[in-house]
Design a protein that fits this description.
- 28% of the residues lie in helices and 20% in strands.
- By secondary structure, the protein is of the alpha/beta class.
- The protein has one domain: Ribonuclease Z/Hydroxyacylglutathione hydrolase-like (Metallo-beta-lactamase, Chain A), CATH 3.60.15.10.
- A hairpin with a 2-residue loop joins strand 7 and strand 8.
């Protein structure tokens, strides 16, 4: 009888912990690829060949969903060219428990993989009303003053709240998102990263940056402050683009990032979740390479996973 009661109490405690976790905000990966997606336009090499004929291994452009089960609200990070599929994908992952459109969209910068999905909100498609799009000042001005994006503002398909770098935006009383700038090829706008603070977890999202040593912050220190850090893994190593000068598209190589964390304990490395893979990056298509990185304690983002 005593043993039975003990087991019953253990089961009840386990249920309570599980129920509490169900109420906690979390992040879903709706895409993991670099701006061109996977497979990549024009690529028939080994890296993309199978993906052209096998839908199950295709991957969408980098995108996160932040979900709050308490308020029944959710937010999208990046408006990608794959937004149509990603919104439906979100519904399937969450079994239709949330509104189809997010309660807001956070955009990092004006490169095609990160904002062009906003076109689907216009009158040619959904003709939405007042969807909040959060962006730093130059990105906000770019959307307001350049067509066709300016039409979204004029027709009130979207609204553009004021966002300041390093100033948290409270999207619920318990959840804040703080934008900060990172060095990148800022042809049309500055480039943002985001820190997400929820009731239980803290996340970092930096899908694009030139090189870690160009930033005025230390990436190792920043990763230590959060639970999960989704960071730029566009390329794995030098020489990945034969015939192209990779200095014209600078990103921190995965090999460089792992070296920076080499002396850190496994619990710090485990906070790093590589994302934003170019089609040439073997972490996108080589299972053995993924396992090799994971054996070093790092995470490799997979589409449709809850964090």
């Amino acid at each position: 009888m005593t043993k039975y009661l003990y087991c019953l109490l253990l089961s009840f405690a386990s249920f309570c912990v599980h129920a509490q976790n169900l109420d906690q905000p979390y992040v879903l990966t709706l895409g993991i690829a670099q701006d061109g997606g996977y497979p990549h336009l024009g690529c028939t090499k080994q890296c993309c060949a199978r993906a052209w004929t096998n839908d199950s291994i295709k991957r969408w452009v980098v995108c996160l969903a932040l979900v709050d089960p308490i308020s029944k609200k959710w937010w999208l990070f990046e408006a990608t060219p794959d937004i149509k599929e990603q919104l439906h994908y979100f519904q399937s992952l969450t079994h239709g428990q949330y509104p189809f459109l997010p309660d807001g969209i956070f955009v990092t910068h004006a490169h095609i993989g990160h904002y062009t999905g906003l076109m689907e909100l216009g009158r040619e498609v959904m003709s939405t009303r007042d969807v909040p799009v959060f962006a730093l000042p130059k990105m906000k001005a770019f959307l307001e003053t350049n067509g066709p994006w300016s039409q979204l503002v004029t027709l009130q398909n979207i609204v553009l709240p004021v966002v300041k770098a390093d100033s948290p935006v409270f999207i619920t009383p318990d959840i804040s998102v703080t934008a900060f700038t990172v060095p990148h090829r800022d042809e049309y706008s500055e480039t943002a990263g985001f820190r997400i603070d929820t009731r239980k977890k803290k996340y970092l999202f930096i899908p694009d940056i030139n090189k870690w040593d160009k930033w005025d912050r230390n990436i190792v220190d920043e990763v230590k402050k959060v639970d999960i850090a989704f960071i730029d893994a566009t390329f794995y190593e030098p020489g990945e683009l034969p015939g192209r000068n990779m200095a014209t598209v600078p990103h921190p190589f995965v090999s460089e990032t792992m070296h920076l964390f080499e002396q850190e304990p496994a619990e710090v490395k485990a906070k790093v979740c590589f994302i934003h893979f170019n089609h040439t990056n073997p972490l996108m298509w080589d299972i053995a390479k993924r396992h090799e990185v994971e054996k070093k304690a790092f995470k490799v983002a997979a589409q449709g996973i809850k964090y």
